[in-house]
Design goal:
Elements: H1 6-15, H2 17-32, H3 40-58
Length: 62
């Protein structure tokens, strides 16, 4: 997904950070509800990407 691609995530977060966060949260929710079964590495990367997007929204580390 674009959320796991660093360059694309940075671009989307710069253009519309709230939408980027919603997409990332939807993917996590899909996994939590067993609609999607990513491997552990993908899920860990998704959580890390979500943290990075959240930091950008809050202005942390910019």
């Amino acid at each position: 997904t674009f959320v796991l691609d660093d360059a694309m995530r940075d671009r989307m977060a710069a253009l519309n950070p709230k939408a980027s966060m919603r997409v990332a949260n939807r993917l996590i929710e899909a996994s939590d509800r067993n609609y999607w079964s990513p491997d552990e590495a993908t899920l860990a990367a998704l959580h890390a990407a979500t943290d990075a997007i959240e930091d950008r929204l809050e202005g942390v580390g910019i």
